[in-house]
Amino acid sequence: MDLDNFYLAPYNGGNMEHRNILLKLWNDKAGKEYLGDLEYHIKRIRERKKDDSRNEFYIAYYGDQQNNYRPVGFIALTTMNNDFEITSGIIPEFRHQHMAALLLEDFTEKIFESYSDIDELTLRIKDSNVPSKKTAQLVGYVKRDREKYTLRR
């Protein structure tokens, strides 16, 4: 999937570059604390994909005008009933560069453009994850309760 600033590749467990992204997040204290078990998350997305093809876990590549793309993290869309939830993570060497906000904004726009039946997207952010809460608000997501942020079309 092409976004304005990123290329998203569906996760492939046989691709070492993809696996290395997960390992970097797993070995990072914040990644482990806030993202949990990504292998389990991927498994659940694949199960849900059987019922709704919009469920997907992507490796995010950031690139320039010359198509020099580098993997920077992941982003995923999960559907549960009529809720559409986004999960994302940026590897440590690309944090504090507004990469998360740029990825979330591009992905949110693409989802709303691609799926006319999706009117609201949700992020679940632990209360202690201050950087992610700031990112969500920067992109336009609104806090609905302790850990839920939403953006409506």
SSE arrangement:
Layout: E1 6-10, H1 16-26, H2 29-35, H3 38-49, E2 56-62, E3 70-80, E4 83-90, H4 99-114, E5 120-124, H5 130-139, E6 142-143, E7 148-152
Parallel strand pairs: 4-5
Antiparallel strand pairs: 1-2, 2-3, 3-4, 5-7, 6-7
Helix pairs in contact: 4-5
Structure report:
- The protein is α+β, with helices and mostly antiparallel strands and 153 residues long.
- It is built from 5 helices and 7 strands.
- The chain has a 7-stranded mixed sheet with strand order 1-2-3-4-5-7-6, sandwiched between helices.
- Strand 2 (56-62) and strand 3 (70-80) form a beta hairpin.
- Helix 4 packs across helix 5 (130-139).
- The protein starts with 5 loop residues before the first strand and ends with a strand.
Brief overview, please?
The protein is α+β, with helices and mostly antiparallel strands and 153 residues long. The protein has helices at residues 16-26, 29-35, 38-49, 99-114, 130-139, and strands at 6-10, 56-62, 70-80, 83-90, 120-124, 142-143, 148-152. Strand 4 (83-90), helix 4 and strand 5 form a beta-alpha-beta unit.
* Secondary-structure element string: EHHHEEEHEHEE
Which strand order do you get reading across the main beta sheet? 1-2-3-4-5-7-6
Poorly predicted parts: none
Write down the overall geometry.
globular
Largest sheet: 7 strands, mixed
Number of strands: 7
Report how far the terminal alpha carbons are from each other: 21 Å
List the total number of helices.
Answer: 5
Overall pLDDT score = 93
Helix content: 25-40%
